[in-house]
Design goal:
single chain; 195 residues; alpha+beta; six-stranded antiparallel sheet; 23% strand
C-alpha cells in the first residue's frame, strides 16, 4: 500500500530503562485496543545493525501471526549515550490485525473487486495527494502525484473514478482536513489521465 496512516513515537531517551518503559507503554496501548497479551510476541536480534554513524536494535511486535510494527533503539556510534527510540506501526495494519478482516476488503471496502489493486491503491494515494493540494507536475512532489495517477489502469478508470475518490476522501477526512473537495479531485485525476 502506497499511502497509510503512520502511528509513531520518536523520542530521545537517556537509558535502557526508558526504552523498556516506552515498550511497556506500547504493550498497554495494544492491550487497550483489544490485542490480548497472550497473543502478542516480540522478535528480533539483539546484535546491533549499523548505518553510517548510527547503530541500533530492531524488535518487531506481532499479534498472532501478523506483524503490527516495530520499536528501534538507536544510538550514535561515536557517542553511545545519545540514544533515541523509534516506535512505529500503521493505523490500517492495526485495524487489519484487530478485525482479522481480509486486507483488500479492509482497505477498499465495497470497491475491493472493482479494479486491480494497483489502480485502487493509486486512486487512494492520489486522493490524499490532490486533497492536500499536491497537483500533477513535471518535478518535485507534483511529479510523484503524476506518477501515482499514471499507475491507474485506464480501462478500469474509463467508467469514472468519482465513486472511489469519494470513498477514499471520506477515509482521509477522518484523519485530517483535505483542502480540495472530492469532485475536484476526481476531475483532476480524470484530466491527468485524459479520460
Amino acid at each position: 500500500m502506497t499511502s497509510f496512516v503512520n502511528v509513531s513515537r520518536v523520542q530521545r531517551v537517556g537509558s535502557l530503562e526508558e526504552y523498556g518503559t516506552i515498550l511497556d507503554g506500547w504493550l498497554t496501548v495494544l492491550s487497550r485496543l483489544g490485542f490480548h497479551a497472550r497473543h502478542l510476541s516480540i522478535s528480533g536480534k539483539l546484535s546491533p545493525w549499523r548505518r553510517r554513524q548510527v547503530e541500533g536494535i530492531t524488535l518487531r511486535f506481532h499479534h498472532l501471526d501478523r506483524t503490527l510494527g516495530d520499536i528501534v533503539l538507536l544510538w550514535n556510534t561515536e557517542h553511545p549515550g545519545h540514544m533515541a527510540v523509534d516506535l512505529g506501526s500503521g493505523l490500517e495494519r492495526l485495524a487489519w490485525a484487530r478485525t482479522q478482516e481480509l486486507w483488500h476488503q479492509l482497505i477498499y471496502g465495497s470497491f475491493a473487486e472493482a479494479a486491480p489493486s494497483i489502480t485502487l491503491d493509486a486512486i487512494r494515494t492520489a486522493t490524499l495527494l490532490l486533497g492536500h493540494g499536491i497537483t500533477p507536475a513535471a518535478r518535485g512532489a507534483g511529479g510523484i502525484t503524476r506518477r501515482v495517477i499514471g499507475a491507474i489502469d485506464r480501462d478500469a478508470a474509463r467508467l469514472g473514478v468519482g465513486a472511489l475518490v469519494r470513498e477514499m476522501y471520506g477515509y482521509w477526512s477522518l484523519v485530517g482536513v483535505l483542502r480540495a473537495p472530492w469532485p475536484e479531485i476526481a476531475r483532476a485525476i480524470e484530466e491527468e489521465m485524459r479520460l
